[in-house]
Every structure is written in C-alpha cells, then in structure tokens.
Amino acid sequence: MADEINVWTHGTLPPAWEAAADEYTAENDGVTINIEELGFDENISQYNTAVASGQGAPSIGIQEGRDTPGMIARGGLADISGMMSDGAEDVFVDWKWAPIEGFDGDGIYGLPMDTAPVVTFYNRSMYDQAGFAPEDIETYYDLIDLGEELDDDQFVLSWAPEMLGIRWEIFYRQKGEQIYTEDGALNIDTDATAEIAEVMLDLYEADVMDRTDEFTESWFAALNDDRYATVTSGAWMAGALEDSLEGQDGNWGMHRCPALHDGDARASNHGGSSVVFASQLDDAEIARAYDFAEFFLTDTERCMMLGTEAGVFPANEETYSDSFWEEPQEYFDGQSYELILEVAEEVPELRYHEEHAEVLDEMETQLEEVLQGNVAPNEIGAQAQEAVADRTGLDTA
Question: What superfamily in CATH does domain 119-267+349-392 come from?
C-alpha cells in the first residue's frame, strides 16, 4: 500500500478526518495522510473535473449522491467491493448504498460517510416575535402565517434559484415518491411534482421567501442578523450554524420539517456524502485510501467523531446508540439531537440513476419558471420529463 495519501474535505469535516488520520498513522508507522480543506462548491467542482479528465484526483474524495451515479457510469470511480472486510457493509444504513452501488448490482464504488435527515432549524427569537411555537408549525402554510407576523425585512426562509432542484428532491422523497421506476424509467410527471411546485409558488407569492444564494457570506450574515426564521436542511446544518454564526448560542432550535399539506409525511433527507476513490489512482494508493476510510467509518467510536467534531450525522448505524445524541446541546439551548435520530428512522429510500444530476438541473429550471409566472405548477412535470428524456434517452413512466 502507498505510504502517503491525501483527502479532500470541506465544511466542518476537517477536524474529524484529522483526528482519524492521527489515530491511523499512530497505528501505521511511516504513513502520511494529508487532510486538505476546500470550499463545498470547490470540492464538488474540482473533484468532478479531476474524475472527468482522468488526472488530479485526491486519494479520497467526499461526494454527494447527486454526482456519484454519473461518475460510476463513466468509469470514474474504483470498485472497492473486493477490498471490504467481512461485516463492513453491515454497519451502514441500507439506503445509503444506493448512490454508490453499480447499476444492476455491479460493484460498490465507495463507503457511506453521513446521512442528512431533514429537520427545520428555527430562530427562537423570531418565533417568539411572531407569537409562534414549534408545535404550531405543521405545514408550509403555517410558515406563511408566521411570516405575516414578521417585519418587512425578515423572511421565513431563503431558497436560492440554484437550490430549487434539490428542494424538489427533498419534497419528492418526503412524499414517498420515486424519481425512477425499478426499471430505470423517469417518473417525475406526477401529481406530487405539481403539488410541490404549487407550494413553492405559494411561498414565493406570499413574500416569505428570500432568494439570496445559500451558504454565502451574505446568507450567513442574514441568519446572524435574525432575518431568516428557518433553515430546513439536513442534519449537517447543525454543525454549519454553530461554526458560522456568532453570538447565536441558544437562539436556534430544531423541529420537524413541515409537511406540504395536513397529514403528509414529515421526514426526508438532504445530502449526506460518500467516500469515493477515483479509478485513475494506482492500486497501491486506492488500497491505502480504502484501508484508512474503512478504519475510520466502520469503527463506532472513531466514526462518532463525525458527530462530535464535525456536527454531521454518521451513516454508521452503530453510532446511533451513543449517548451523545441524547446530551443537551448548549448551542441549541439545551435541546438534544434525539429528533434527528427519530427522523432518520423514517426517511424513505430513494433510487438513483446516472442521469440524476441532469434531472435536478431540469427541475431547477422548471421551478424557477413557475416562480416567475411563466409555467403553471401542473405543467412542469410533463415539460421536465420530456426535456430530460430528449437529452438523455431515458424511458419515461
């Protein structure tokens, strides 16, 4: 195995990976592991570029399910199924394998790192200002009511145009829908897509939705200045808020994400990454990189560092019995992470396809057209399905 490897990380992840690297190198004399921190968008784009060009990829990449199916289909990721220790596969959440499994069950192209059960992070002072409590919020229409009680320069939420496709996926999964049939046919021309578009339009027209680009300095500044009452996102947002906001300790809490309508499900997933290994690397480098990743992610105590050091929710199910999740969190005014555990049990599975990024991009375009009044909510499913099918050759349901 290689004596030196590097890992591209982003966000709040470096401390956890650095701690794991320290333990690994202490047990493996002469091995060097370099943990490199990139911006989130930079990490995604540079890794995609490296895989596509066949050069420049790190020993370990950390990527989301939006992109990994396409990388697998193009031969950009290494099949690590033959390297896995007995029982290694069993410790992870079953549905996290979907974006890193080969199609037709052919190979495994990474290890699950974290999942991202969706919860609504809410600004306590803004809820108090509006006279609302978390239990008052059951649907997105309750958030519209909350927004009516806020000041003119305050918003319930901020959804940037480039995130609309991801938001649609969250809602679609929350509704229990599948983007692809078991045979791989595209399945987005549905009543659920029309319903999601209608709810988004209602939020937009109620003027409770800001459009600032998410995860930018101005977006975090607005959160810090009490301009956004909620952030509905994956569990990893807990670490991002604590890491990025100043003077907000105790001012944020968590509650179930709203349903689209009364009686609908209130569990979904937003993101969560997998650890992947580019096929362009030589065998010795892949072997060392995989050995380190399995050392980190399959060991319960070490993997818990993703929660304690990085503020993300591990995909290793054996970590869920750790007492950390029940401990009061000072940043969230004593609220624990037990809600995230509850939601994690209810997240519906989702199928993936090599053209998944193409689908999300098209839904982003179509939903923006709805918000701008150019397309009716009940029309975008058919338009998006036809457009994606024409570009990709996918069959349609």
Answer: Periplasmic binding protein-like II (3.40.190.10)
